[in-house]
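Schema walk-through. Below, the input block comes first and the output block second. Nothing else is stored per chain. Lengths vary across the set, and this one has 164 residues.
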Amino acid sequence: MAARRFAVRRIAPGFTVGAMCVIERSDGALLLVRHSYRKRWGMPGGLLQRGEEAGDAARREVFEEVDLEVELAGEPAVVVDAEPQRIDIVFRARPAKGSDSDAARPVSPEILEVRWFPADALPELQHETSTALVALARASRSPQSPHLQPARPLDQREERPAAG
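--- output ---
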């Protein structure tokens, strides 16, 4: 058994595993972040540390990035992206009881901005964020799933006329 595990690890492709949170406020607004190294908006999240449970990583990353305690809701969705060899575990979350959701703010150098957006008026999203929202929307068709207003991915939204 040990020899087989060693052989599989030597020839199998390596994947990074991350955890991210779709954080929904009681009014349905979603918390998004603007990373210093990306142009579009994303969700709080990051890589799991060795031996860390995915839910613990999701809560830790949210706190480290935006100084907000969250409660995870329901089962996560899993997104496998073969090209960059990345697996994202996507959790639904809400601000923890007693947390001031309006006090969420950037506390990590990688986060430039934190903002709540109505679910039907999201900005341009990072690819990973759009994919995560689609995965959660599919999972939300299950009767056991908690409420979340699924957003349409950027490429499925109607274009708005320019203001002017």
